[in-house]
Design goal:
By secondary structure, the protein is of the alpha/beta class. The protein is built from 13 helices and eleven strands. The strands form three sheets. The protein has a five-stranded parallel beta sheet with strand order 9-8-7-10-11, with helices on both faces. The chain has a four-stranded parallel beta sheet with strand order 2-1-5-4.
């Protein structure tokens, strides 16, 4: 049975950036409602077995945490009452087989718990989201988190990430070693997602060319999920570019998000390599990315860059796709 303190469980869903944004929003909601927090990434997207991938990649600090998933009948959404230890994907499949309305809720809506509501009576809340849902949380800042009231969403989320998430020490050691061995004095960090969400490359090349003209001694760190993109950048920028060593899908299977690609030799290793790239991007002197992918957004939140050093190319994304994202994903 539960102790007297209620609990918020954050289930894993989608890619690494989306999951981390969900955790950041969950930390804020747990603070606002005085709930303990448990992050459950045992869905197999980023782990090779039943291990909780979150705690293999990072840990929570200065957060009131639960050690295990409890047994409780006081649960919202109610479909989770007997499935607290299951994944979003398993429960949604169950709902679909039973033709329950919850199947649509689980897989089509961007979240489970309404963060505008702080007074849920249930002992256990189960949440998943593509984003932090910070706009829902913001209405509570004046009364309960006044220090954030006049900060932008990015400033709030950056503070929460830097204050409450600690990346695994082994990952940080790899990042430090790479920076020391490979980084130029000034680095242009570039993230290009080019598997399931192919973006236009020309805006990247034009932005980088302009930055290189203004700072010809700078280097380029490229983080991408596509081997062809890697080759294009190496051919264009030759000895100015560096990349981390990681597994990339073959051209025949690169239409899948790298985290869903069954050809990957190790799902956990893919996740660790992704965290290394995010950390390396955050160490760069400037950042070129497209916020259609939350990967670059997390790197921005980790960084200390100001707006003059950040180049978000999402304005070049087709309007139809941006409208689709607006329904499902914001920071």
């Amino acid at each position: 049975m539960l102790s007297h303190q209620p609990l918020l469980i954050l289930k894993g869903r989608a890619g690494l950036g989306n999951r981390l944004l969900c955790v950041l929003g969950g930390i804020l909601y747990a603070q606002l409602t005085q709930r303990k927090l448990l992050v459950d990434w045992r869905d197999g997207v980023y782990s090779d077995g039943v291990d909780n991938a979150f705690y293999q990649l990072m840990s929570l600090i200065d957060v009131d945490q639960a050690e295990s998933i409890p047994v409780s009948r006081s649960v919202y959404p109610t479909v989770w009452k007997t499935y607290l230890d299951k994944t979003v994907y398993v429960v949604s499949e169950y709902c679909a087989q039973k033709e329950l309305p919850s199947a649509k809720e689980l897989m089509q809506l961007p979240q489970a718990v309404n963060f505008t509501k702080l007074d849920y009576s249930e002992e256990v809340l189960v949440h998943w989201s593509f984003s932090s849902n910070i706009n829902q949380l913001r209405r509570h800042f004046r009364d309960k988190l006044a220090q954030f009231e006049n900060q932008t969403n990015l400033e709030v989320l950056s503070h929460i990430l830097k204050s409450h998430i600690q990346v695994d020490s082994g990952i940080i050691a790899d990042v430090d070693q790479f920076v020391q061995a490979k980084f130029f004095r000034r680095m242009i960090g570039v993230h290009v997602r080019y598997t399931d969400r192919k973006v236009e490359l020309k805006p990247y090349l034009k932005s980088i060319d302009r930055l290189m003209i203004s700072d010809p001694d700078a280097g380029i760190f490229l983080a991408t999920d596509n081997a062809i993109v890697e080759k294009i950048f190496y051919d264009r920028y030759s000895n100015k570019i560096v990349t981390s060593e990681k597994w990339l899908p073959s051209p025949s299977s690169d239409s899948l998000g790298i985290h869903f690609n069954s050809d990957a030799p190790s799902k956990l290793q893919v996740a660790r390599q992704a965290m290394i790239d995010i950390c390396l991007l955050s160490r760069c002197s400037s950042l070129v990315f497209n916020s259609v992918s939350t990967f670059g957004v997390i790197a921005l939140l980790m960084s200390t860059l100001d707006s003059s050093q950040v180049f978000d190319l999402s304005k070049y994304t087709p309007t139809g796709f941006l409208k689709h994202l607006a329904r499902h994903q914001t920071i």
